[in-house]
C-alpha cells in the first residue's frame, strides 16, 4: 500500500519513539518531518526513523511541509498552543499526548480551534487500546461480573496530570464514558514540585459518581500502592487489571475464576489506526478531544474540591487550574 498520510512529529523524546514505531508499522503513514530544538536528539531520531526533514521550530515545520497528521509529543505546557497552531495549518488530524492541557480553558481553546478547521483531535490515552482493557469491556458487556458498581484505580508514579490522567480516563472508559455528576477530592503539596515544566501535587485522592450510577475512586502519587492497577467490582464478581501478583487480567466470579487469554497489541499503533479510520469516515475516535476534555474535567474537579473543601457538581465552571489558584493564594 502506498504511503498517503504524511506525518510530522513535534518533540523527539521517549514518547515520540512510541509514536514513530507505531507510524512505521502502518503502511499508509510516513513520517516526513520532525521538530525538535535539541540538535543531537533531532539527528538521532531522524536517523533511527528515516525522517527526511528536520526543524528546530514546529511553526517552521508547519510552514515548510504539507502534513496530514501531526503528533504532539512535548511537555504539557505546550499542548494547547501547538494544537491551535496546527489546526490552523490545514492538517487532517492531530494526536496530542496526554494530559490534554493544564486546565479546562486551554482544553476548550484546543477543541474550538479543531472544530473551526474540521481537524480531528485525539488525545494519547492509548491504554484504552490495551488488550486487557479491550477484554474487560467485553466482559462488562457480557455481564460476566453482573452489574458494575465500583471502579477503583491507582498509580504511585507521578501526579494527577502526568499519570493520573490515564487512571481517570480508564475509569471513565470502564464506566462507558457516562457523564460524571459530582467529584470529591483532596490533594497535598508539602514542597514545591515541578514535573514536565509545570507545578504539580505530591498526592491525590478522588471519588466521583457517574450518571449511570457507577462510582469511581483514584489514589495517585506517593500514597498510592505500588504499580498501576484497577479493581472493578460488580454484583456477581470482580475484575482485576494489572493486579500486583502479576496478572494483566484476572476475573473472579461466583462460579470461580475465568480463564482469560490475551492477544499482544501495540496500543499506540491501535490508537493511530483508529484515528486513520476516523479521518476516512469511520466512527469518532474513542480518545477524541471531547473525551480528553471530560477526563481533564475530573482531574480539575479533584483539585477544585480540595481548594474549596466541598463536593464539586459538574460541569466545572473554573477554567483555570485550581492547583495554580491554590498556590497563588498560598493555600498549599
Q: In brief, what are we looking at here?
A:
The protein is of the alpha/beta class and 332 residues long.
Poorly predicted residue ranges: none
The CATH superfamily of the largest domain is known as: Dihydrodipicolinate Reductase, domain 2
Class by SSE composition = alpha/beta
CATH topology of the largest domain: Dihydrodipicolinate Reductase, domain 2
Please state the overall shape, judged from the principal axes of the Cα atoms.
Answer: globular
Q: What is the correct CATH architecture of the largest domain?
A: 2-Layer Sandwich
Number of strands: 17
Physical arrangement of strands within the biggest beta sheet: 16-15-14-13-7-12-11-8-17
Highlighted features:
Rossmann fold, Dihydrodipicolinate Reductase, domain 2, nine-stranded mixed beta sheet, 10 helices, globular
Describe this structure in words.
The chain has ten helices and 17 strands. It is α/β, with parallel strands linked by helices and 332 residues long. The protein folds into two domains: 5-126 and 269-286, NAD(P)-binding Rossmann-like Domain (Rossmann fold); 128-264 and 294-328, Dihydrodipicolinate Reductase, domain 2, CATH 3.30.360. Helix 7 (160-174) packs across helix 9 (289-308).
Write the layout of secondary structure elements.
Blueprint: E1 5-10, H1 14-24, E2 29-35, H2 39-48, E3 53-55, H3 58-64, E4 69-72, H4 79-87, E5 93-96, H5 104-117, E6 120-123, H6 131-141, E7 148-155, H7 160-174, E8 180-188, E9 194-195, E10 198-199, E11 203-210, E12 215-221, E13 228-234, E14 237-241, E15 249-253, E16 256-257, H8 267-279, H9 289-308, E17 312-313, H10 322-328
Parallel strand pairs: 1-2, 1-4, 2-3, 4-5, 5-6, 7-12
Antiparallel strand pairs: 7-13, 8-11, 8-17, 9-10, 11-12, 13-14, 14-15, 15-16
Helix pairs in contact: 1-8, 4-5, 5-9, 7-9, 9-10
